[in-house]
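Lab notebook, design round three. We kept the backbone fixed and only want residue identities now. Task for the bench partner: fill in a sequence for the structure below.
Input structure tokens:
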């Protein structure tokens, strides 16, 4: 189903998936550079099957609403990177916070708690959500760009997991090492490494690795059950 979230003058849409009993803590699922596509809706559906209310906000709405890039062709990537180049992180964080606040007050939210879970661009935004939003827990999968905001690490205020793909074509090893060096000792951060490429959890994608995706998912669900229930 779709819900609308109001901003100052406009609104943006979110995909929402409910668990079987209709209630649970909320996970705000943060998109890759492909929009609120089939992959993201499937993730939301999976989280709902595990007892969470899941919401996927359209973070590209200011550029182009309702983007759904469902393939991995050259044309698909060209469009995705074009949108990424126009993307404003600060405005996205404002939209994420509005989504989190809306989620905290949903009648379906039986704990009043909200987590964020993001992939690629969304993984970067989950890191920033631990600093700039009122989310209660955050999980970032193979986030791209985290190294550019490590100077904000002292402001992390909610617990954070980062899943890192050691073979990530978009996050070179030296950047991975920098992230570990800066965050390994942070009391609110846990980092897990996986011998896989970027997007190892994207079911149907070229880099999907089922065994590794399940390992990361188990850690994610245990983390959210601990901090959101």
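Proposed sequence:
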């Amino acid at each position: 189903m779709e819900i609308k979230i109001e901003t100052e003058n406009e609104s943006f849409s979110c995909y929402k998936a409910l668990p079987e009993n209709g209630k649970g803590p909320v996970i705000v699922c943060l998109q890759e550079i492909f929009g609120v596509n089939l992959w993201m809706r499937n993730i939301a559906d999976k989280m709902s099957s595990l007892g969470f209310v899941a919401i996927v906000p359209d973070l590209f709405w200011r550029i182009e609403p309702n983007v759904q890039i469902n393939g991995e062709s050259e044309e698909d990537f060209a469009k995705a990177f074009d949108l990424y180049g126009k993307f404003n992180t600060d405005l996205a964080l404002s939209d994420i916070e509005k989504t989190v606040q809306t989620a905290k007050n949903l009648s379906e939210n039986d704990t009043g708690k909200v987590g964020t879970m993001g992939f690629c661009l969304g993984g970067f935004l989950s890191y920033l959500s631990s600093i700039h939003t009122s989310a209660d827990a955050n999980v970032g999968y193979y986030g791209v760009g985290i190294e550019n905001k490590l100077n904000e690490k002292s402001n992390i205020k909610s617990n954070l997991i980062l899943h890192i793909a050691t073979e990530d074509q978009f996050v070179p090893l030296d950047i991975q090492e920098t992230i570990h060096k800066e965050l390994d000792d942070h009391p609110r951060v846990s980092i897990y490494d996986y011998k896989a490429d970027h997007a190892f959890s994207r079911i149907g994608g070229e880099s999907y690795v089922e065994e590794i995706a399940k390992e990361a998912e188990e850690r994610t669900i245990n983390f959210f059950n601990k901090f959101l229930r």
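Keep this in mind before ordering anything: The chain has six helices and eight strands.
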